[in-house]
Write a structure and sequence with these properties.
The chain is mostly helical. The chain contains eight helices and no strands.
């Protein structure tokens, strides 16, 4: 259940970070949203150029590519739904249009981006929470059988590279003389 927390909240965390940055630093919010967009575009392209099955698919179907396979929350998140008496993860992941989109892990990329872009405005305890959330997501992605370790590493790499690119492209303009 602990590992389901970041999986169930990551979209809300991204939206919360955007609202937070809007109130603190609009320029940083722009970098955050451009990086978020580029992460999604890069992920979409990678999913279609290099389709990769998540571990739950491999454990269910082996190395056979079954294009008729139904999207799934996987056994781990299905157990969380059953334990809590809800269909949250089944409803969310059961509607996926791309089973073979494990690389990169955008689940990991989003909390990493959130921690990096909000960092200057966070108190020490909130920095611990942001880093803990990102690390818990990395662990959860593998533990819940949704990503391989390489997917996590590629997701973190995409975040670092794209954020670096956006930071160079969107430097604040100098103050007028």
């Amino acid at each position: 259940v602990l590992c389901a927390v970041p999986y169930g909240t990551y979209i809300f965390a991204v939206l919360g970070a955007a609202v937070f940055l809007y109130s603190k630093d609009f320029h940083r919010l722009q970098r955050f949203t451009w990086t978020f967009l580029l992460l999604n575009v890069a992920g979409f392209i990678t999913y279609h150029v290099f389709p990769a099955a998540p571990p739950w698919y491999f454990h269910s179907y082996g190395c056979v590519v079954d294009l008729a396979a139904r999207p799934s929350a996987g056994p781990s998140l299905a157990r969380v739904d059953m334990l809590l008496g809800v269909a949250y993860f089944r409803g969310f992941y059961g509607r996926s249009n791309d089973i073979f989109g494990a690389v990169p892990s955008l689940h990991v990329a989003y909390p990493a981006l959130l921690a990096l872009e909000t960092w200057p405005y966070l108190s020490r305890p909130l920095r611990v929470v942001a880093v803990g959330y990102a690390l818990l997501m990395c662990f959860a992605a593998v533990y819940l059988d949704h990503h391989w370790v390489i997917d996590v590493l590629v997701g973190l790499t995409y975040t670092a590279v794209l954020l670096s690119f956006v930071r160079r492209a969107f430097r604040p303009s100098p103050a007028p003389p």
